[in-house]
Design brief:
With about 140 residues, this protein is α+β, with helices and mostly antiparallel strands. Helix content is about 45%, strand content about 10%. A hairpin with a 2-residue loop joins strand 3 and strand 4.
Length: about 140
């Protein structure tokens, strides 16, 4: 790595252990450049938070929180936007976050995916300015 002028920063490095089967907790640590990198509960890579069980619960909670914040702010400026501008904002800010690395979420239980589906439903309702309990399937189809 030194030949390519890359340097590993021990203060920003995280160590995660993903066992093949559930078993006893391992206390791992790596000594590197007079620093000790200890085992962490979860690690961030490319803005995806991985945990030891690959359940993505922390990732989904953070993603849901950030998307709700964006939806709240878009809803506040909604009266000043056209429908096209509203749709562009939602697709560029909210839907792009939901789509990023979503292939990692394939095969997860429905209870893990449901908060993300609710965010997508709220985004579609916001574009069409429909009430909370309106049917979402035709809305989602028309947005694609």
């Amino acid at each position: 790595m030194a030949a390519h002028h890359l340097k590993l920063s021990p203060s920003k490095s995280e160590l995660i252990f993903i066992p093949a089967m559930t078993g006893p907790h391992h206390d791992l640590a790596i000594s590197f450049e007079n620093s000790l990198i200890v085992l962490s509960v979860d690690a961030r890579s490319l803005d995806v938070i991985l945990d030891g069980q690959l359940s993505f619960l922390t990732h989904n909670a953070n993603l849901t929180r950030s998307c709700r914040y964006l939806l709240y702010n878009i809803r506040r400026i909604r009266p000043f936007l056209t429908r096209e501008a509203d749709q562009v904002l939602l697709q560029s800010l909210v839907i792009s976050r939901l789509d990023y690395c979503n292939s990692l979420l394939d095969g997860l239980p429905m209870q893990t995916i449901k908060p993300l589906q609710l965010i997508q439903n709220v985004a579609a309702q916001l574009v069409f300015n429909l009430p909370k309990f309106s049917h979402n399937t035709p809305l989602l189809r028309s947005l694609h």
